[in-house]
Amino acid sequence: GLVVSGAIMVILNLGLSGFFLNDYFSFLVATQKPEFGLRDRDMFTFFAYLRQTQPFSLLNFYELFLVNIFFYIISLVFLFKIHKNLSLENNFIVVTILTLVFSVHGVNYDLALLLVPIFIIVNRIRSKTNLSTTDGIAIITLVLLPVLFLIGKGIFIPFILLGVTFLLITQRAYPRLLS
Questions:
Q1: Helix, strand or coil for residue 63?
Q2: Residue 112 carries which DSSP code?
Q3: CA Rg, the chain, in Å?
Q4: Sign of the C-alpha dihedral computed for residues 69, 58, 165 and 32 taken in this order
Q5: What is the pLDDT of residue 160?
Q6: pTM of the entire structure?
Q7: Residue 148: closest CA among 48, 52, 42
Q8: CA 30, 72, 113: angle at the middle one, nearest 5?
Q9: With contact defined as beta carbons under 8 Å apart, do 145 and 175 qualify?
Q10: What one-character-per-residue DSSP string does 123-142 give?
Q11: How far apart are alpha carbons 167 and 134 in whole angstroms?
């Protein structure tokens, strides 16, 4: 029922508003400029890293978008292959982190989305269920991550987040239950 109703909503939306994807990409390209308050040095995403790094900085928006999507798809395929070996909590945390890392636009206040993974790990630490030695490292890293913005080193955030993702992926699997 959920898939059918979701498909009906998408079809009705496209029927009423038209196919907007081309307009949306044009809008993104037009507004991904410093005049609209977007500066790559203020973002923490992999896309922002690519825009600031040679030879990727020579690519246009669409080409960078494709490179970013390519790496995102590779990470999701890898996660799909190993997701049964991870706890449900770690699967959720990893997907949340990957979504942040590979989004096109992510600035400091978007790190608030990490509060849910932080609280999941804190809950796991407090309840002492599904506890791993890497939970402490992950929680300290996620909590201190915004400091990098304060010292002007936000460009390193996607790689630190990928490191936390690696820590969570390598944890021993526990029963797939939320506590």
A1: helix
A2: G
A3: 18
A4: negative
A5: 92
A6: 0.75
A7: 42
A8: 75
A9: no
A10: HHHHHTSS--THHHHHHHHH
A11: 6
How far is 52 from 106, CA to CA, in rounded Å? 15
Per residue in 110-161, pLDDT (tens digit) is: 888 999 999 999 988 888 766 677 888 899 999 998 888 888 888 889 999 9
Which residues 6+ apart lie within 8 Å of 104 measured at CB?
A: 28, 32, 45, 47, 65, 68
DSSP designation for 34: G
The confidence score (pLDDT) of residue 175 equals 47
> How many of the other CB atoms lie within 10 Å of CB of 167?
18
Q: Which residues of the chain fall below pLDDT 70?
A: 17-25, 28-29, 31-40, 129-131, 172-179
Contact between 117 and 89 under an 8 Å Cβ cutoff? The reply is: no
Quick one: which of 111, 101, 94, 95 has its CA closest to 165?
94
* Omega of the bond leading into 34 within 30 degrees of 0 (cis): no
Helix (H, G, I), strand (E, B) or coil at 89: helix
Tokens of 153: 């080193």
Given this model, what pLDDT does residue 53 score? 81
* Burial zone of 128 (CB within 10 Å; 0-12 exposed, 13-18 middle, 19+ buried): exposed
Q: Residue 118 has which token pair?
A: 């932080």
